[in-house]
Design goal:
Chains A, B: Belongs to the NAPRTase family. The structure is a homodimer of 457-residue chains. Chain A is an alpha/beta fold and 457 residues long. Chain A has two domains: 257 residues, nicotinate phosphoribosyltransferase, CATH 3.20.140; 173 residues, TIM Barrel, CATH 3.20.20.70. The interface between A and B is large, with 123 and 123 residues.
């Protein structure tokens, strides 16, 4: 079976355009930018994520024999083009912001420079990879702003949109500052710390809730978290006291209880009192169920004594903003600047750099998008990360990127960290960028006049 | 690298519970139901989808050597349990509604019967697979209701949450009645018809829009769709007339033009007039950009002369309702009915059947959830689809399921087909189901009394 991340995981129009390019040898160098047009409502910034997966996709881009056999059998493509597909590799270069870097609308986050067909074919998957992890990493940082000193764990695999989404959500939320994920595969694949509790079914499969607790505690004594809301939350907390004493005699500590239903704040307050009165002051309270950054902030503002949160469906589906208004657009071909003019979707031409300036205290002060060859008055954010189809060593580890993200978030203006951010961040375009855009427009107008002349109104 | 659909694609708590079950030989037969608690706002029904992927996951469930090596190295699990994981297979049975069947809250859509650890481990992935395709298939049927005679194509891969989401959206939207998808891989994997046009970058890479059109037309003359909104939509439509005449001389027909920006209805009206006046009455208009079922219905209600729609981000991310309130819950263990009582999350115990009744005209009249062994006064919807870990032949093809879905949608009460459905559909629980729930409650109360007595408040 052709794997789900095969090169055929693309839009048919990419192959159609490639065949047309191939037919007329249009393989001059093209430059494409990936960028976002708007921030989601209430968001002050976005966090770049997914670059590592883009780079491995480009490095390994090659049609398998199975894919080629399908393409030949489909009757959709000419023999000459099929030969071309057989030899297809990505030989271009990539400039990108580091994973974990905050960015803003209209800033190129990633730039691909390659022969036109190569840069075109990968469009669909590049957007697919960057958009999702950017959504999740950003949302994770917003949860961290809401609960900076709490244990935050991704619980969303089951409600994520498929296998890759669940796995990448674990990666991206850790990048964004979560403590870890419940998704086991994220440990071997990305070194993400993993966390787990127990399900209601475990309690229900036993004839007695306390027997279930003790059974679990003795089988899995490390990092013990007991789920107490299967029947009666406060009742379970009370009954737990005696059990905890017996377990303590054998050196087993109930590290936390988990509440997954009802009014989480109210239950947490009552359970905290019961645990404290019962001598379990060191046992933490972990909450889950329908949480996102807003709900967490509200619970903590209300004084809920909750020490950690499991954040699932609303994180892994980016429920408040499940997609970004993002694009991957041609900005140069064969040395000429290019842009499109579609209503509300005009783009900036040419090769760009994003330069970030900081104030004396190290806080971000504003970005400028400028031509690549303009002198940088600040920190250039786009770095060369792939050349001749190979990653430029050394690629940062995910742990490095996570540290970078935390450091960068510390430099954000406070107003942008608000969960309902109203303030904008200053991003301007250099005079030379404006001049280049005008130049591209004149070019477009000329060719339209020419076409009109030739074909009548 | 461990593949993204490996058995470790699960929550850590599943493995923790398995180790506890293993430690005390709790491997009696368990029964779990997958069901949805509520319909999304405005939805009159949901459409079952994703069963084929669940069955192949269960059939192939086996830890790879790489996974086992990681589990051993992690130090998280005992040797005896690692041996158990090495031999892990799914040997149980599955009852399920056919893909394409409409269903309603609290109705089991899928039931797993297996030794407790087997039924438990697969929980996370079963929910992950069923939820997403159910969301997408349902949304696709709603688009079909909005535009029953139009060409509807899934364009969402780039904004889908990862590879699997994009691929499964193509599958599920075709199941729901779409004409096809732009996702190439859906053709070899699932036999989904694929469609493609061209990107703005193709136009921009040429010095002249008309030259780009002609180049594309001659390279890919079949099913020719030209994208006309890169610079000036109506201008491009006018200039196209002369080109179309020249192409027609060589037997090439411009099947459609595509509009992807601006006021789609207004542009479509103007372009229709231009094409009709220019003798291109047979050239269709295809629209895309920010579409969902509501927008499509509004465009058509407004008389927009649009013949087909490309539906992307809002379909593939199920943007209005990106996750379902769904669950996979234990309802029987070791022959005893089980349920949980958590606030607002109580579940129904026991093995169930869903029986659907129809009126004289074949329209659905109401469903009853009853015990499996009660006589069925209507059509039983849950069928045995897997036994002893192997699918029960023959599995319907996706094309069969698509036909079944269309047939079933024809039997829905009209009110449920509304995009903003207010009416409910009658689902009741048999007297014997109510009696069983009471029986399970008495059992829970007894054990709680017992626990309370033992440990004091």
């Amino acid at each position: 079976m052709i794997p789900a991340n095969a090169l055929l995981l693309t839009d048919l129009y990419e192959l159609a355009m490639l065949e047309a390019y191939h037919a007329s040898d249009m393989d001059d160098e093209a430059v494409f930018d990936f960028f976002v047009r708007d921030l989601p409502p209430g968001y002050g910034y976005l966090v770049a994520a997914g670059l590592a997966q883009v780079l491995s996709t480009l490095r390994d881009a090659q049609f398998s024999d199975e894919e080629l056999a399908w393409a030949a059998d489909s009757g959709r493509f000419g023999d000459d083009f099929l030969d071309y597909l057989r030899g297809f590799r990505f030989t271009g270069s990539v400039h990108a912001m580091r994973e974990g870097t905050p960015f803003f609308p209209d800033e190129p986050v990633l730039r691909v420079t390659a022969p036109l067909p190569q840069a075109q074919l990968l469009e669909t998957r590049i957007i697919n990879l960057l958009q999702y992890q950017t959504l999740i990493a950003t949302k994770a940082t917003r949860c961290v702003h809401a609960a900076p000193d709490k244990l935050l764990v991704d619980f969303g695999l089951r409600r994520a949109h498929g296998a890759e989404a669940g796995l990448m959500a674990a990666r991206a939320s850790w990048l964004g500052g979560f403590a870890g994920s419940s998704t086991v595969l994220a440990a071997p694949r990305f070194g993400v710390p993993i966390y787990g509790t127990m399900a209601h079914s475990f309690i229900e499969a036993h004839d007695d809730e306390l027997v279930a607790f003790e059974h679990f505690a003795r089988a899995r004594p490390q990092s013990l978290v007991l789920l107490i809301d299967t029947y009666d939350t406060e009742g379970a907390a009370r009954r737990l006291i005696g059990l905890a004493e017996r377990l303590a005699e054998d050196g087993i500590q109930v590290q936390a209880v988990r509440i997954d239903s009802g009014d989480l704040g109210e239950h947490a307050r009552r359970v905290r009192r019961i645990l404290d009165d019962g001598g379990l002051g060191d046992t933490n309270i972990f909450a889950s169920g329908g949480l996102d950054e807003h709900r967490i902030a509200a619970l903590l503002a209300d004084g809920a004594p909750i020490d950690g949160f499991g954040i699932g469906s609303k994180l892994d589906t980016a429920a408040d903003t499940p997609y970004l208004d993002c694009a991957y657009k041609l900005c140069e071909y064969a040395g000429e600047p290019r842009r499109k003019h579609s209503e509300h979707k005009a783009t900036w031409p040419g090769r760009k750099q994003v330069v970030r300036r900081y104030d004396a205290s190290g806080r971000m002060r504003g970005d400028r998008v400028q031509r690549e060859d303009e002198p940088a008055d600040g920190e250039p954010l786009l770095e060369l990360v792939m050349e001749f189809g190979e990653p430029v060593a050394p690629t940062p580890t995910l742990a490095d990127s996570r540290e970078h993200c935390a450091e960068q978030l510390g430099r954000l203006p406070d107003a942008l960290r608000a969960l309902d951010a109203q303030a904008g961040y200053p991003v301007d375009f250099s005079d030379r960028m404006h001049a280049l855009a005008r130049e591209a427009d004149v070019h477009i107008e000329k060719q339209q006049l020419k076409s009109s002349g030739g074909n009548g109104p």
